[in-house]
Amino acid sequence: MYTQGLDQKGQSNEKRSALESAADLEAFQKRIDAEEKIEAKDWMPEAYRRTLVRQISQHAHSEIIGMQPEGNWLTRAPTLKRKAILLAKVQDEAGHGLYLYSAGETLGTSRDEMVGDLLTGKAKYSSIFNYPTLTWADIGAIGWLVDGAAIMNQIPLCRCSFGPYARAMVRVCKEESFHQRQGFDIMYELSRGTEAQKAMLQDAMNRWWWPSLMMFGPNDSDSRHSAQSMAWKIKRFSNDELRQKFIDATVPQADFLGLQIPDDDLEFDKKTGHYRFGEIDWSEFISVIAGNGPCNKQRMARRRKAHDDGAWVREAALAYGEKQAERRSAA
Amino acid sequence: MVKNRPSVGALLDSATRGTEMNSKEWPLYEVFIRSKSGLSHRHAGSLHAADDQMALDHARDTYTRRSEGVSLWVVRSSEIVASDPAETAAFFEPAEDKIYRHPTFYEIPDGVENL
Amino acid sequence: MKKDDALLAYVTRLGDNALILGQRMIEVVTLYPELEEELANANLSLDYIGQARLFYTYAGKLEGKDRDEDDFAFLREGNEYRHVLLVEQPNGHFGDMMARQFLFESFYLLQLEAIEQCSDSSVAEIAARAVKEIRYHLRHVSQWVVRLGDGTDASHARMQRSIEDLWQFTGELLAADEIDDLFHEKFNGPDLNAIRDQWHSNVANVLKQATLEKPGDDWMASGGKQGRHSEHLGYLLAEMQYLQRTHPGANW
Fold this sequence. Notes:
The complex is a heterotrimer of chains A (about 325), B (about 120) and C (about 250).
Chain A: H1 4-9, H2 12-19, H3 22-33, H4 46-71, H5 80-105, H6 111-120, H7 136-157, H8 163-191, H9 195-214, H10 226-231, H11 239-257, E1 267-269, E2 274-276, H12 282-292, H13 296-309, H14 311-330
Helix pairs in contact in A: 4-5, 5-8, 7-8, 7-9, 7-11
Chain B: H1 8-15, E1 28-34, E2 42-48, H2 52-63, E3 71-76, H3 88-92
Antiparallel strand pairs in B: 1-2, 1-3
Chain C: H1 3-26, H2 35-63, H3 69-74, H4 85-88, H5 94-115, H6 121-149, H7 153-167, H8 170-174, H9 178-187, H10 192-209, H11 232-246
Helix pairs in contact in C: 1-2, 1-9, 2-6, 5-6, 5-7, 5-10
């Protein structure tokens, strides 16, 4: 099944992968085309495995880092109910990270390796979490916009070809819809509040709208990995398709909240039935991905600190576990 | 038996040095949940824990927050013995042509009841 | 003091302990030593916030001045909070946090079990729910005390220090004041004399398993239950109450 122990025992898979004949690749593609699920120890092209490890671990890292901008308002949540709800949401994010690391580990990499790549800066995570949460309204905006965008991405992934990833996504999607509603609920309450609260709301909208659109990734024409990912049913819709879907769903919600969307070019096109929108500032996206967003360094520093500060605890727990095992076998 | 312990100061210093010393991971466990009485345990995913009790607690916190379980099993991943996917054909296909194992293979003559 | 005032004061204390400890635990989100512990500690914190809400709501009802759970949590002055000093101590490292929770919950579980039997059915009902949660908490944190005490030499040293540093705050848990006495006499509430012995015995057991030394009872800090807190509380409240104080009367 999913064990690294089994990796060492079963050599025939490694031998076959090394050869990767045209026949193997064709047989694999046939399975994909037939909507069969690929499981952890099935034969797969090395590139398929690598792509999945990269995508799954990035996804997991995003969940973990994503806990930080939202966690930033836990101690200052304005009511006990909001505090509890936000904590449950942040907890879910930790859980999502865990399901995803778990799925990643079925592909022969370890949690330590994946986390190690995050901490050295080698692995990426979603650009959106490099922005600061400056007010309580930001927490609403994240739930409504960021989780909304994430849901657009995640629902198709429930049908991804790789079994463990698809199953993890089913679990995640079940929990995610509460997240978006929680965010919208916060926005709705603020929209009916004091002048100061309404101003807080619009300010959050102004800062989170464009970064949320960037979450869907570069335009299809600029997207390097897409074609192969689509063929292997790791990706099921294109970046632009999902981005358009998100905008179409969200603009009416913004109207309902009485919010201005910070895009002068936004306009409903009656012929296509979709919203036309302005040009995304891709230089900002590239800059943030490269490590120069407002919070990149801070996010990584906090994650590293948690890891380093916790080393003595993890070691102690292991040492105790080993002592227990010795005592049991001696008994 | 009394161990000679190093000075507290030295120990506290060494405890703050962090990652240099820690390269061993907590072992991986697989989690199985029975969601309701009457159903079997189903595989839910995996997690890391330093011992069995911790694994159970973590499984509870990770996989049963929405009342999804009445019973949890955790097993060290290294203890699981699995069929080798490379041998799938030899392992499973021979069963496919022994259709006489299925009741539908047999035609019951008209008029015979309770078979 | 009138017996109804004693009941209100006692219930408010229970809410305060839960809120302040919950808040302390929440401060550490994203800083726990392992992902699985983030999930565990979030569950424990959620239990505390939930308990605070129940105790405060009942306190509001008893008071009869239309104050709700958020009024109690966000709109009181520092000296109106009556939690024990132990729960407002700063977080420190993971060992400090486990020690703090272990020492407090060894007491809190016994207190709740006694409150379950008291004559006020509302607070007994809340206690019945809380008891299940705290039973799980105590097992979890006791296990950590044992793991860290009997882990590596370094973790042993740290844990010993944590227990010793926090020991001065344990006296307040077990020392009855006027409100404790009234709640015991008039409402069949917890008898701190009985709880004291049990607490010492339970704590000694776990410390022994953890290969840790049980500190002697020297000077004990007190004052929390009377509203005389440490300098830490002001900062905790400033952060927690910020939005409500900045936007008086707003809905969230």
